[in-house]
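Re: weekly structure request thread

Next one in the queue (320 aa):
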Amino acid sequence: MHHYTAVVSHTMPGCSYSPTEAWIRTIPQLAFRFEVLLNPMLALSALHLHAHSSNDTEMQVALSRYLDRSIVSHRQALLKLDDAQSEALWLSAILLAHMFWLLTHQALPNEAYKLPLQSFKILEGVGALFEQKIASLEQLGYGWNIADCIPQIATADRKLSEAAHTELQDIEADLANLMDAFNVAELPDRDRSIYTEARDYVLFEYRGFLAGADPRIFERFIGYIVVKSPSGYLPKLEQYDPLAMALMARILVLISEGKDDWWMKGRGVYEVMERDVRGIREVMPAHLRWTMDWPCRVLDGEVILTKGGQKIEQRGNQNP
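Done, posted below.
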């Protein structure tokens, strides 16, 4: 409890669906009244401690215990959907979504890489919960869309430097090469729409980044491609569809350019970017691994991205 209030709550992101004040004040206050929020708050604190000290087995046990309790109490609360605890249930969902983003990236001995599909499904569930309680949650100042950030990135887009424009053209060329290689233009309407909108989402992310948008804005979009893209995109990922994975990888490498946000980048056994990008390359069919060349070059520091007109120095990891 002390670690959460003194440390963890101050590291979490402020955004429309969970204002900074919610992490620092609202969650601890409501946790004293509602067990549905107490357990995930303690689980998040244990996860932070374990991420920063992976060899602490006692903390790993504590994390498992609080997480199990969190899931049980959250499921029970969902069956009731009591208006009296709608805010606590909503914040519980937000906490669980943040935790599962890292938990699904946990490196386990002798276990092959898997896409973090569970975390994406939880994001979809959070959106569904908001729709059920939209009236009361909006009155409390919460929201569940990222439209409020789009104008800020769109405005920043006009400020692209000459170097950033050149880099954006390189990214557009890489994406065009991908789409051509998979003959997207010749696919049935449904599939073409899924891939085209996912590509547009990737470009939107890079425009915001290259224009120097506040990392607190664009970093929220990184895991949301499955939420903002057509409903068929997540099923494509579930099938380990090569083009869907290649597009996802191009979003994920942007994590390296944000702040040192443990809840997004991960740490220790919960590291995100290396695990995802290298992992996607490994599960890609051998004849299509070339589709991961560009993300891996970014990861290795061979491609140095431009943020707001200034080159970002990268110390790429040279893992094979």
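The chain has two domains: 2-139, 150-311. Residues 150-311 form one domain.
Next request, please.
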